[in-house]
From TrEMBL:
Domain Transcriptional repressor PaaX-like N-terminal residue range list: 23-88
Protein name: PaaX family transcriptional regulator
Species lineage: Bacteria, Bacillati, Actinomycetota, Actinomycetes, Pseudonocardiales
Domain Transcriptional repressor PaaX-like central Cas2-like: 110-183
Domain Transcriptional repressor PaaX-like C-terminal: 192-275
PANTHER family named in the record: PHENYLACETIC ACID REGULATOR-RELATED TRANSCRIPTIONAL REPRESSOR (PTHR30319), TRANSCRIPTIONAL REPRESSOR PAAX (PTHR30319:SF1)
Originating species: Saccharothrix algeriensis
């Protein structure tokens, strides 16, 4: 569908309680609809669909321009209509997001870990900052200075991102097991900010749990609910990269948040896509 901070430059990655920005909704629309229309959407379609979420045209056009400047979208006219297509970078980011956002399986301790060990010369410290930013965006925790850790299933997207950013020459990736010493669950709490994650998951549940109590919705209501759901959810699998349940606090709130997301996805996706497709088709 789409990507998250997140979002490979699409989202700020901060508290879920902050209102989503129009550009984040635009990315959600492109994830849902553009790839069924040649990776392209007309400006009129984007304006019309986001108008159903209460976002005005000026904000939509401004946000599209920002995504163009970030080389996520490219201006392109088709059949006389003004619109924007996904750039190659935008397509790659959405492919990565598909795997991350809709992954239902959590890692287990037996799966092992991915270690990223890097060393950057002082003369290129800007590369060090970029490397840290990319690893953080991918969901790595910090085990020690210059040593970052994540569940092993992230090895392919990590390698892809480091190559695409020209950072692979500064880092080594290792598969590892935790063999001895210390309480691994306690270490996970230090390596990742579980208190922040708990607050974000709580905000997600508060915002979207009421949708389960509604009768089955269709049309514009299903579309608006689903776009908001996806936009809020897609940041979370990057901050919590499928950490093993065995190493998380009892009754981890992230499990309940994921169950809510997938239950609502099952309920809302079909009518939301149908409504969006009708609007895009004019």
């Amino acid at each position: 569908m789409t990507s998250g901070p997140g979002d490979a430059g699409f989202a700020d990655g901060d508290a879920l309680a902050k209102a989503a920005q129009p550009r984040q909704f635009i990315v959600t629309l492109y994830g849902l609809f553009s790839r069924g229309h040649g990776d392209w959407l007309s400006v009129a379609s984007v304006v019309g669909l986001l108008g159903e979420l209460g976002i005005d045209e000026a904000a939509v056009r401004s946000s599209i321009s920002r995504l163009k400047r970030r080389d996520v979208l490219q201006a392109e006219r088709r059949a006389g209509a003004a619109g924007y297509a996904l750039s190659p970078a935008g397509r790659a980011i959405l492919r990565e997001g598909d795997h991350r956002i809709f992954r239902r399986k959590r890692a287990t301790p037996a799966d092992g870990w991915l270690l990223a060990v890097f060393s950057v010369p002082e003369a290129e410290r800007h590369k060090r900052h970029l490397l840290r930013s990319q690893l953080s965006r991918l969901g790595f925790g910090t085990a020690a200075p210059g040593v970052w850790i994540a569940p092993a299933h992230l090895h392919e997207p990590t390698a892809d991102v480091l190559r695409s950013q020209g950072l692979h020459g500064y880092a080594d990736l290792f598969r590892a097991d935790h063999l001895a010493f210390g309480d691994l669950a306690g270490k996970v709490r230090r390596w990742w900010d579980l208190d922040q994650l708990e607050a974000l998951y709580s905000a997600f549940l508060t915002e979207h749990a009421p949708a389960l109590d509604r009768r089955r919705v269709t049309g514009s209501r299903a579309f608006a609910d689903y776009v908001r759901l996806l936009t809020d959810w897609r940041r979370l699998p990057y901050l919590d990269p499928g950490l093993p349940e065995e190493l998380l606090p009892p009754d981890w709130i992230g499990i309940r948040a994921a169950e809510l997301f997938f239950a609502l996805q099952d309920r809302l996706e079909e009518p939301a896509r149908a409504h969006g497709t009708r609007v895009i088709g004019g």
